[in-house]
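User: Structure please.
Assistant: Input sequence and predicted structure:
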Amino acid sequence: MEFKAQIIAAFLNGEIEGDADVAVTNVAKIEEATPGTLAFLANPKYTPYLYTTKASIVLINKDLQLEQPVSCTLIRVADAYSAFASLLELYQNAKAQKSGISPQAFIESSAKVGEDAYVGPFAYIGENVTIGKNAKIYPHAYIGDNVTIGDNATIYSGVKIYHECVLGNHVTIHASTVIGADGFGFAPSADNQYKKIPQIGNVILEDYVEVGANSCIDRATMGSTIIRKGVKLDNLIQIAHNVEVGQNTVIAAQSGVAGSVKIGANCMFGGQTGVSGHITVADGVKLTAQTGVSNSLKKENHIYGGTPAIEMSNFHRSSIHYKNLPALATLVNQLKKEIEALKANK
């Protein structure tokens, strides 16, 4: 599809600098763009590319001051990153949408599938399942008995949703993720064996939750594991039984959250973070990559790093001392020898 700068600017409430009639048919990174593509500049470290890019149109922030002439048409917007995301969403929605039920899908007679939904080949829909309007169930997905899936949800190929789980509207689950697997509950016995504790709860994903590929969210032992509205989980994430993740929290790849943790709203966890069980994390907490949390973090909107997690200012100071440990060890050994020599000469 082709879009002119004036159409894009009108959609984004932007201001044009340059040729309003220039058209684009694709999008690209600013450093790799070619004529006929649209790019954006949000990160200051990419600013030099603005003066060399071959993109026809570039979205920039309104307050960006130009240091030299540019060859492309600029569209100034309040937030270039968000504006670019809105354009990508518009582009994706303009593509033909899948609909209809494949004759190769297997749907139990008691299941209910909403209007304009899509169910792909070899998908299985269990007993008493309810699937909302315009939902998309891609091939080889498994939807267990008594599951509820809301309107405009997207369940990609290979996803497994166990019985009794509840997914809200506009939920997206990427390939090979498992929702509702048993929580890791085993009781040790006197003979060093483990007796499995039945996991009779479920998982609830509220509206606008997105879960990346190859992740797992365990069902609760009792009650529900709850992922609140607007949460975004990356690929390869483990959420254990009875966890609650607050609204609009984002967690990056390879992170793990142990059982019965309560995470606040608007938190941000970097990749490979780990959270021990039965603790709380306050609203707005940010964890840098590979942070290990073993105790509750009760201060809202604070940044933590390291293992065990400490506030970021202390973590940076500790890192300086840690890097100096070899030199300090050498100095201590040298001082030790000098002291021994002084004692020997007495």
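Residues 100-314 form a domain with the UDP N-Acetylglucosamine Acyltransferase; domain 1 fold (CATH 2.160.10.10).
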